[in-house]
Amino acid sequence: MDLSILTIPGHLPTHLPFKQVKSGFFNLSTVWSGEDPLADSLTRPLEIPCLVHNTQRDGPIVGITAAIHGDESNGCFVLANLFRELREGSIKIESGVLVGFPVVNIEGFLQATRLWRGKDLNREFLLSRRGFVAEYARRFLHSYVSQLDLLIDLHAVSRVHKSALHIRADLTDPVAVRMAHKLRVPIVVHQPSPAGSMRHAAFSEFGIHSVCIEVGSALTLAPDQTRQTVAGLAEFLGDLDRPTPVPGHPLSSRSPLICGGVNWVRSPCAGLPELICSPGEIIEPGQQLGKVYSLAGDCITKVIYPVSQRRGVVLSQLSAPGAVPQYELVRVGWLADPGAFAAPCSSWTRGRRTAAGKGAAR
Ligand SMILES: [Zn+2]
Protein backbone atom coordinates (compact mmCIF):
# COMPACT_ATOMS: atom_id res chain seq x y z
CA MET A 1 0.00 0.00 0.00
CA ASP A 2 3.02 2.29 0.15
CA LEU A 3 2.91 5.18 -2.19
CA SER A 4 5.75 5.15 -4.66
CA ILE A 5 6.40 7.80 -7.20
CA LEU A 6 7.64 7.66 -10.75
CA THR A 7 10.80 9.71 -10.96
CA ILE A 8 10.92 10.13 -14.71
CA PRO A 9 12.10 13.52 -16.02
CA GLY A 10 9.57 16.25 -15.39
CA HIS A 11 8.02 14.35 -12.56
CA LEU A 12 8.36 15.19 -8.93
CA PRO A 13 8.78 12.53 -6.26
CA THR A 14 6.76 13.20 -3.12
CA HIS A 15 9.63 12.43 -0.79
CA LEU A 16 11.43 15.48 -2.19
CA PRO A 17 10.60 18.50 -0.04
CA PHE A 18 9.11 21.39 -2.00
CA LYS A 19 11.85 23.64 -0.63
CA GLN A 20 14.39 21.66 -2.68
CA VAL A 21 12.41 21.80 -5.92
CA LYS A 22 13.30 24.32 -8.61
CA SER A 23 10.54 26.39 -10.17
CA GLY A 24 8.60 24.57 -12.89
CA PHE A 25 5.58 22.54 -13.92
CA PHE A 26 5.41 18.96 -12.77
CA ASN A 27 3.17 15.96 -12.88
CA LEU A 28 3.06 14.19 -9.56
CA SER A 29 2.69 10.67 -10.90
CA THR A 30 1.60 7.88 -8.67
CA VAL A 31 1.79 4.13 -9.04
CA TRP A 32 0.39 1.61 -6.59
CA SER A 33 1.19 -2.01 -5.87
CA GLY A 34 -0.43 -5.08 -4.37
CA GLU A 35 -4.05 -5.35 -3.31
CA ASP A 36 -4.88 -1.75 -3.73
CA PRO A 37 -8.19 0.06 -4.23
CA LEU A 38 -6.39 2.17 -6.79
CA ALA A 39 -5.38 -0.88 -8.85
CA ASP A 40 -6.70 0.58 -12.08
CA SER A 41 -4.04 3.22 -11.72
CA LEU A 42 -1.33 0.60 -12.25
CA THR A 43 -1.81 0.83 -15.98
CA ARG A 44 -2.66 4.50 -16.07
CA PRO A 45 -0.92 6.35 -13.24
CA LEU A 46 -2.77 9.31 -11.85
CA GLU A 47 -0.93 12.46 -12.76
CA ILE A 48 -1.52 15.35 -10.40
CA PRO A 49 -0.50 18.66 -12.02
CA CYS A 50 1.69 20.79 -9.78
CA LEU A 51 3.24 24.22 -10.25
CA VAL A 52 6.21 25.34 -8.13
CA HIS A 53 7.76 28.79 -7.78
CA ASN A 54 10.76 28.64 -5.48
CA THR A 55 12.43 31.93 -4.47
CA GLN A 56 15.34 29.97 -2.92
CA ARG A 57 14.99 32.22 0.14
CA ASP A 58 13.66 31.24 3.56
CA GLY A 59 9.97 31.73 4.01
CA PRO A 60 6.70 29.84 4.30
CA ILE A 61 5.54 27.25 1.80
CA VAL A 62 2.22 28.56 0.53
CA GLY A 63 -0.06 26.09 -1.25
CA ILE A 64 -2.97 27.02 -3.50
CA THR A 65 -5.41 24.28 -4.47
CA ALA A 66 -8.13 24.46 -7.14
CA ALA A 67 -10.86 22.25 -8.59
CA ILE A 68 -11.21 19.93 -5.60
CA HIS A 69 -14.75 20.08 -6.99
CA GLY A 70 -14.11 19.15 -10.60
CA ASP A 71 -16.49 21.68 -12.17
CA GLU A 72 -15.09 24.70 -10.31
CA SER A 73 -12.52 25.71 -12.90
CA ASN A 74 -12.10 29.44 -12.22
CA GLY A 75 -9.42 28.49 -9.70
CA CYS A 76 -7.48 26.75 -12.50
CA PHE A 77 -7.41 30.04 -14.38
CA VAL A 78 -6.30 31.88 -11.24
CA LEU A 79 -3.29 29.58 -10.91
CA ALA A 80 -2.50 29.61 -14.64
CA ASN A 81 -2.49 33.42 -14.71
CA LEU A 82 -0.62 33.74 -11.41
CA PHE A 83 2.23 31.43 -12.43
CA ARG A 84 2.48 32.95 -15.91
CA GLU A 85 2.86 36.41 -14.37
CA LEU A 86 5.46 35.03 -11.96
CA ARG A 87 7.45 33.62 -14.89
CA GLU A 88 7.15 36.92 -16.78
CA GLY A 89 8.23 38.90 -13.71
CA SER A 90 5.16 41.11 -13.43
CA ILE A 91 4.46 39.48 -10.05
CA LYS A 92 7.31 38.94 -7.61
CA ILE A 93 7.61 36.88 -4.44
CA GLU A 94 10.37 37.85 -2.01
CA SER A 95 10.65 34.67 0.03
CA GLY A 96 9.44 31.13 0.49
CA VAL A 97 7.94 28.68 -1.97
CA LEU A 98 4.60 28.83 -3.78
CA VAL A 99 3.06 25.49 -4.76
CA GLY A 100 -0.05 25.38 -6.95
CA PHE A 101 -2.31 22.38 -7.52
CA PRO A 102 -4.57 23.55 -10.36
CA VAL A 103 -6.64 20.34 -10.51
CA VAL A 104 -7.06 18.30 -7.31
CA ASN A 105 -10.14 16.36 -8.45
CA ILE A 106 -8.66 14.98 -11.67
CA GLU A 107 -11.50 12.76 -12.83
CA GLY A 108 -14.20 15.29 -11.93
CA PHE A 109 -12.35 17.98 -13.85
CA LEU A 110 -11.98 15.80 -16.95
CA GLN A 111 -15.72 15.02 -16.81
CA ALA A 112 -16.76 18.57 -15.80
CA THR A 113 -18.52 17.27 -12.70
CA ARG A 114 -18.33 18.30 -9.05
CA LEU A 115 -17.89 14.76 -7.72
CA TRP A 116 -15.32 12.00 -8.22
CA ARG A 117 -16.90 8.57 -8.70
CA GLY A 118 -20.03 9.85 -6.99
CA LYS A 119 -18.12 11.17 -3.94
CA ASP A 120 -17.52 14.71 -2.78
CA LEU A 121 -13.71 14.62 -2.54
CA ASN A 122 -13.87 17.53 -0.10
CA ARG A 123 -15.70 15.36 2.44
CA GLU A 124 -13.44 12.31 2.08
CA PHE A 125 -10.54 13.58 4.20
CA LEU A 126 -11.63 11.40 7.13
CA LEU A 127 -9.80 8.41 8.56
CA SER A 128 -13.08 6.50 8.73
CA ARG A 129 -13.69 6.75 4.98
CA ARG A 130 -12.87 3.80 2.71
CA GLY A 131 -12.55 3.43 -1.06
CA PHE A 132 -10.76 4.96 -3.99
CA VAL A 133 -11.57 8.62 -3.39
CA ALA A 134 -10.80 8.47 0.33
CA GLU A 135 -7.49 6.77 -0.41
CA TYR A 136 -6.60 9.47 -2.91
CA ALA A 137 -7.56 12.14 -0.35
CA ARG A 138 -5.38 10.52 2.30
CA ARG A 139 -2.34 10.32 0.02
CA PHE A 140 -2.78 13.84 -1.32
CA LEU A 141 -3.02 15.16 2.23
CA HIS A 142 -0.05 13.28 3.63
CA SER A 143 2.28 13.55 0.61
CA TYR A 144 1.69 17.15 -0.47
CA VAL A 145 -0.59 19.21 1.77
CA SER A 146 1.40 18.17 4.85
CA GLN A 147 4.43 20.09 3.50
CA LEU A 148 2.59 23.43 3.40
CA ASP A 149 2.64 26.21 5.97
CA LEU A 150 -0.40 28.06 4.62
CA LEU A 151 -3.21 26.80 2.38
CA ILE A 152 -5.53 28.76 0.11
CA ASP A 153 -8.31 26.60 -1.36
CA LEU A 154 -10.08 28.00 -4.43
CA HIS A 155 -13.75 27.14 -4.94
CA ALA A 156 -16.83 28.44 -6.76
CA VAL A 157 -20.53 28.59 -5.95
CA SER A 158 -22.97 26.22 -7.64
CA ARG A 159 -23.60 26.46 -11.36
CA VAL A 160 -27.14 27.79 -10.80
CA HIS A 161 -26.02 30.70 -8.63
CA LYS A 162 -23.98 33.83 -9.33
CA SER A 163 -21.82 35.29 -6.60
CA ALA A 164 -19.67 38.09 -5.25
CA LEU A 165 -15.98 37.27 -4.71
CA HIS A 166 -15.61 36.32 -1.05
CA ILE A 167 -13.46 34.45 1.44
CA ARG A 168 -14.68 31.83 3.89
CA ALA A 169 -12.50 31.27 6.94
CA ASP A 170 -12.54 30.59 10.65
CA LEU A 171 -12.18 34.13 11.98
CA THR A 172 -11.42 32.91 15.49
CA ASP A 173 -8.05 31.86 14.02
CA PRO A 174 -5.64 34.86 14.06
CA VAL A 175 -3.56 33.41 11.19
CA ALA A 176 -6.61 32.96 8.98
CA VAL A 177 -7.69 36.53 9.83
CA ARG A 178 -4.29 37.81 8.72
CA MET A 179 -4.49 35.80 5.50
CA ALA A 180 -8.00 37.10 4.80
CA HIS A 181 -6.96 40.73 5.27
CA LYS A 182 -3.83 40.46 3.13
CA LEU A 183 -5.64 38.75 0.26
CA ARG A 184 -7.68 41.92 -0.33
CA VAL A 185 -10.93 40.13 -1.11
CA PRO A 186 -13.83 42.54 -0.45
CA ILE A 187 -16.01 40.20 1.65
CA VAL A 188 -14.86 37.81 4.38
CA VAL A 189 -17.28 35.34 5.97
CA HIS A 190 -16.74 33.56 9.26
CA GLN A 191 -17.37 29.91 8.41
CA PRO A 192 -15.16 27.16 9.88
CA SER A 193 -14.41 24.32 7.48
CA PRO A 194 -16.56 21.20 7.94
CA ALA A 195 -15.24 17.82 9.08
CA GLY A 196 -14.05 15.75 6.13
CA SER A 197 -12.86 18.74 4.13
CA MET A 198 -9.23 19.11 3.07
CA ARG A 199 -8.86 22.33 5.04
CA HIS A 200 -10.26 20.77 8.21
CA ALA A 201 -7.90 17.79 7.88
CA ALA A 202 -4.91 20.05 7.10
CA PHE A 203 -5.37 21.84 10.41
CA SER A 204 -6.45 18.93 12.59
CA GLU A 205 -3.64 16.67 11.35
CA PHE A 206 -0.83 19.14 10.66
CA GLY A 207 -1.80 22.52 12.13
CA ILE A 208 -1.92 24.16 8.70
CA HIS A 209 -3.96 27.37 8.61
CA SER A 210 -6.15 28.04 5.61
CA VAL A 211 -8.80 30.13 3.93
CA CYS A 212 -11.17 29.38 1.05
CA ILE A 213 -11.87 31.85 -1.76
CA GLU A 214 -15.12 31.53 -3.72
CA VAL A 215 -14.34 32.62 -7.30
CA GLY A 216 -17.42 32.85 -9.53
CA SER A 217 -19.70 29.92 -10.31
CA ALA A 218 -19.06 26.34 -11.37
CA LEU A 219 -18.67 25.82 -15.13
CA THR A 220 -18.83 29.58 -15.77
CA LEU A 221 -15.85 31.74 -16.57
CA ALA A 222 -15.50 34.73 -14.24
CA PRO A 223 -12.66 36.83 -15.75
CA ASP A 224 -13.17 39.83 -13.44
CA GLN A 225 -13.15 37.76 -10.26
CA THR A 226 -10.22 35.71 -11.57
CA ARG A 227 -8.21 38.90 -12.18
CA GLN A 228 -9.17 40.27 -8.76
CA THR A 229 -8.10 37.03 -7.07
CA VAL A 230 -4.74 37.03 -8.86
CA ALA A 231 -4.18 40.66 -7.79
CA GLY A 232 -5.00 39.78 -4.18
CA LEU A 233 -2.69 36.77 -4.26
CA ALA A 234 0.09 38.91 -5.78
CA GLU A 235 -0.23 41.37 -2.90
CA PHE A 236 -0.43 38.56 -0.35
CA LEU A 237 2.61 36.73 -1.71
CA GLY A 238 4.63 39.82 -2.62
CA ASP A 239 5.28 40.85 0.93
CA LEU A 240 4.24 38.14 3.34
CA ASP A 241 5.95 39.79 6.30
CA ARG A 242 4.46 43.26 5.97
CA PRO A 243 2.30 44.03 9.02
CA THR A 244 -1.40 43.53 8.47
CA PRO A 245 -3.59 46.65 8.79
CA VAL A 246 -5.98 46.16 11.67
CA PRO A 247 -9.61 47.33 11.59
CA GLY A 248 -9.86 51.01 12.46
CA HIS A 249 -6.25 51.71 11.45
CA PRO A 250 -5.74 54.35 8.71
CA LEU A 251 -4.15 51.67 6.52
CA SER A 252 -7.39 49.73 6.68
CA SER A 253 -9.24 51.87 4.15
CA ARG A 254 -9.63 48.77 2.00
CA SER A 255 -10.71 46.53 4.87
CA PRO A 256 -13.20 43.87 3.81
CA LEU A 257 -16.79 43.57 4.94
CA ILE A 258 -16.81 41.05 7.78
CA CYS A 259 -19.73 38.63 7.97
CA GLY A 260 -20.42 36.69 11.16
CA GLY A 261 -22.21 33.90 9.32
CA VAL A 262 -24.59 33.13 6.46
CA ASN A 263 -28.26 32.48 5.96
CA TRP A 264 -30.36 31.58 2.95
CA VAL A 265 -33.51 33.24 1.74
CA ARG A 266 -35.46 30.33 0.28
CA SER A 267 -38.32 30.22 -2.16
CA PRO A 268 -41.61 29.71 -0.31
CA CYS A 269 -43.21 28.12 -3.38
CA ALA A 270 -42.56 26.73 -6.83
CA GLY A 271 -42.41 29.27 -9.61
CA LEU A 272 -40.31 31.65 -11.63
CA PRO A 273 -38.20 33.87 -9.37
CA GLU A 274 -37.24 37.35 -10.50
CA LEU A 275 -34.58 38.79 -8.18
CA ILE A 276 -33.87 42.52 -8.08
CA CYS A 277 -30.83 42.35 -5.77
CA SER A 278 -27.29 41.67 -6.97
CA PRO A 279 -24.18 39.94 -5.56
CA GLY A 280 -22.20 42.26 -3.29
CA GLU A 281 -25.22 44.47 -2.51
CA ILE A 282 -25.83 45.52 1.10
CA ILE A 283 -29.37 44.65 2.14
CA GLU A 284 -31.50 45.62 5.14
CA PRO A 285 -33.93 43.47 7.16
CA GLY A 286 -37.36 43.65 5.59
CA GLN A 287 -35.99 44.61 2.15
CA GLN A 288 -37.70 43.16 -0.90
CA LEU A 289 -35.27 41.07 -2.95
CA GLY A 290 -37.62 40.05 -5.76
CA LYS A 291 -40.84 38.24 -6.62
CA VAL A 292 -41.84 34.70 -7.56
CA TYR A 293 -44.26 34.39 -10.49
CA SER A 294 -46.54 31.54 -11.49
CA LEU A 295 -46.15 29.92 -14.90
CA ALA A 296 -49.18 32.00 -15.94
CA GLY A 297 -47.30 35.17 -15.08
CA ASP A 298 -49.06 36.14 -11.86
CA CYS A 299 -47.02 37.28 -8.87
CA ILE A 300 -47.38 34.55 -6.24
CA THR A 301 -45.26 36.12 -3.53
CA LYS A 302 -42.63 38.73 -2.79
CA VAL A 303 -39.14 37.60 -1.75
CA ILE A 304 -38.32 39.45 1.47
CA TYR A 305 -35.11 39.45 3.55
CA PRO A 306 -36.66 38.64 6.96
CA VAL A 307 -36.91 41.48 9.47
CA SER A 308 -35.56 39.07 12.09
CA GLN A 309 -32.17 38.96 10.34
CA ARG A 310 -29.27 41.39 10.62
CA ARG A 311 -28.10 43.80 7.94
CA GLY A 312 -26.21 41.76 5.37
CA VAL A 313 -24.47 41.50 2.02
CA VAL A 314 -25.62 39.32 -0.88
CA LEU A 315 -22.99 36.59 -1.32
CA SER A 316 -24.77 34.69 -4.08
CA GLN A 317 -28.18 34.38 -5.69
CA LEU A 318 -30.06 32.07 -8.00
CA SER A 319 -29.36 32.58 -11.68
CA ALA A 320 -31.52 29.69 -12.92
CA PRO A 321 -35.03 30.57 -14.16
CA GLY A 322 -37.09 28.19 -12.03
CA ALA A 323 -37.40 27.30 -8.36
CA VAL A 324 -39.20 24.74 -6.21
CA PRO A 325 -40.28 25.18 -2.57
CA GLN A 326 -37.33 25.76 -0.22
CA TYR A 327 -34.98 26.34 -3.13
CA GLU A 328 -32.01 28.59 -2.24
CA LEU A 329 -32.72 32.00 -3.78
CA VAL A 330 -30.30 34.37 -2.03
CA ARG A 331 -27.35 33.60 0.25
CA VAL A 332 -26.71 36.45 2.65
CA GLY A 333 -23.67 37.09 4.84
CA TRP A 334 -24.84 38.99 7.92
CA LEU A 335 -22.56 41.86 8.81
CA ALA A 336 -20.61 41.62 12.06
CA ASP A 337 -18.35 43.88 14.06
CA PRO A 338 -14.77 42.92 13.07
CA GLY A 339 -13.85 43.34 16.74
CA ALA A 340 -15.98 40.29 17.52
CA PHE A 341 -13.32 38.09 15.97
CA ALA A 342 -9.60 37.49 16.43
CA ALA A 343 -7.08 40.20 15.59
CA PRO A 344 -4.62 39.31 12.83
CA CYS A 345 -1.55 37.47 14.13
CA SER A 346 1.95 38.82 13.59
CA SER A 347 3.67 35.68 12.29
CA TRP A 348 2.94 32.71 10.09
CA THR A 349 3.02 29.82 12.49
CA ARG A 350 1.38 26.46 12.34
CA GLY A 351 -1.38 25.69 14.78
CA ARG A 352 -0.41 24.22 18.11
CA ARG A 353 -1.27 20.56 18.20
CA THR A 354 -2.65 18.91 21.28
CA ALA A 355 -0.99 16.02 23.11
CA ALA A 356 -3.12 13.70 20.99
CA GLY A 357 -1.50 15.21 17.93
CA LYS A 358 -4.65 17.00 16.83
CA GLY A 359 -5.16 20.71 16.53
CA ALA A 360 -8.42 22.47 17.18
CA ALA A 361 -10.64 22.32 14.13
CA ARG A 362 -10.39 25.33 11.83
ZN1 LIG B 1 -16.20 23.84 -4.17
UniProtKB/TrEMBL annotation:
Which cofactors must be present for this protein to function? Zn(2+)
Q: Keyword Zinc, does the record have it?
A: yes
Presence of the UniProt keyword Metal-binding in the record: yes
Top-level taxon of origin = Eukaryota
The transmembrane segments are none
Q: Where is the Succinylglutamate desuccinylase/Aspartoacylase catalytic domain?
A: 59-237
* Keywords attached to this entry: Hydrolase, Metal-binding, Zinc
Q: What is this protein called?
A: Peptidase M14
Gene source species: Paratrimastix pyriformis
